[in-house]
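Board notes (copied after class):
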Amino acid sequence: MKFIEKLKFDPDGLIPAIVQEAETGRVLMMAWMNEVSLKSTIETGKTHFWSRSRQKYWMKGESSGHTQEVKDLAFDCDGDTLLIQVAQHGAACHEGYKSCFFRSTSEGGGFETTEERLVNPDEVYKK
């Protein structure tokens, strides 16, 4: 049996993919994949996703050049979530940070930015 047959895509044909930096274990982002983006990721060794908001297939880094080189692709025991370990080249976040998880909650219900911005998104990302 091929692993893709073990996966449980949601009614829209999507499955969540957690992207983790292979070297450090840091979670960089979460995005959605469909069967086409998953197969493209496997074939190219670069991450591809499905954008629910734009209703568009995309490769991470296609506009910024900040790509993700796949080191390992795993799925959980239920087959309903993917874990993709990558070598991140540049910022993973479209706001210019290494990780999309650059804010932490603080006392009183606020939050704080916990890392330096790597790039100005207005200068890098094509809108």
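Comment from the instructor: The chain has one domain: 3-117. Helices lie at 35-44, 121-124.
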